[in-house]
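quick one: coenzyme A bound model?
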Amino acid sequence: MSEIETRLDNGVLEVQFNRPEKKNAITEQMYKDLAQAFVSARVNDDIRVVLISGHKSCFTAGNDLKDFLENPPEDDDSPVFRFLQTVADFPKPIVAAVNGPAIGIGTTLLLHCDLVFSGEGAKFQLPFVNLGLVPEFASSYLLPLRVGHAKASEWLLTGKMFDAHEAKSAGLINEVYKDEQFFSAALHHAQKLAQLPNESVMISKRLMKQTYMSHTLQIMDEEGALFRRRLASDDFKKAVDAFLSR
Ligand code: COA
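yep, here:
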C-alpha cells in the first residue's frame, strides 16, 4: 500500500493520506506522490473533481517534522513547494473530507479547497510560530481574507487548536457532520459536483479566484523563502527535539 492512495470513481479522484501509524504526517516522498497525482489529474479529462481525505480519526499531522529537520526543502523546486504550487492554481474543484487532527498544512491546504466537510472530531491547528516557523501555503494572506484578521491572528500567532464548530462559524469549512457521516457526505458532494457541466464549474472556480491568484502565488514564494530560513533556526531544532523526545 502506498502512503498516498488514489482511486478514480465516476469522475472523482480520491486522494488519501495513508500513513496512520504516524498520524499521516507528510514526508518528502508523499509530497512527490501528491504533486504527481495533481499534475496527472489536471490533464486527465476523466477526472472532474479531486476529493482529498485522511482516515476516520486523522486527516494529517502536517509536515513530518523529523523529515523536515533531516531533509529540509532547499528551493521552490523541492517536492513540498511543487505540491503547493500545483494545488494553488489547480483548475478543477477540490473537496476535502476532514476528521481528527488537521495540523499545519492539514489546515492551510483547506484554504485551497473549494468545499470542505468535517466530522465533529476534527481538530485544526496552525502551530508554525510555536515551532519557530512562519505561515506557509499563502495562509498569511488567505486566512485573514477568509476568516478576518482577528480570527487569523488568534490562530496563526498563538497556534491554538480549534474545533470543527469554531472552524465552521469562522468560515474555514462548509459543514460539520457526525463522525460516522463526514466521509460519505463529502463523497456525495464531490460526486454531485462531478455530474455538473464541467466547463461551467471550472470557469466559475477560476472567476472566483482570479482576482487574488497572482498575489497568492507571490506570497507563497515569499513565505517559502522565509519558511526555509526558519527551518535552519535553533528555535525549530529545539521544537522538533522536544516533540520527538516526548
Ligand atoms: N511529524 C513526524 N512524526 C509525527 C508527526 C509529525 N508531524 N505527528 C505525529 N507523529 C508521530 C509521532 O512521533 C508518533 O510516532 P511514534 O509512535 O513512533 O512515537 C506517532 O506519529 C503518533 O503520534 P502521537 O503524538 O503519539 O499521537 P497523538 O494522537 O497523541 O497526537 C497529534 C496526535 C497530531 C496531535 C500529535 O502527534 C502532534 O501534535 N503532532 C505534531 C503536529 C505538528 O506540529 N505538525 C507540524 C506542523 S508544521
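The pocket of coenzyme A is lined by residues 22-23, 25, 61-66, 101, 103-104, 127, 131 (CB under 6 Å).
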